[in-house]
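Here is a typical sample entry:
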Amino acid sequence: MFKTNLGEADRVIRLALAAMIIVFSVILGHPLIALVAIVPIVTAFAGVCPLYSVIGLHT
């Protein structure tokens, strides 16, 4: 459906961001904040960012 539009560096950054969000949610004691981390994790593993497709970016 979508063409891969994320490079390796972008994927690593997204996974690092997801890890930071999860740690932040644990520190604050609000596990629901960790649900936000699902978006960068899924896009990193899929290699596709729908927003990038709309904008026309390829990293």
Observations:
- The first helix runs from residue 8 to 28.
- The chain has a mean pLDDT of 93.
- The chain is about 60% helix and 0% strand.
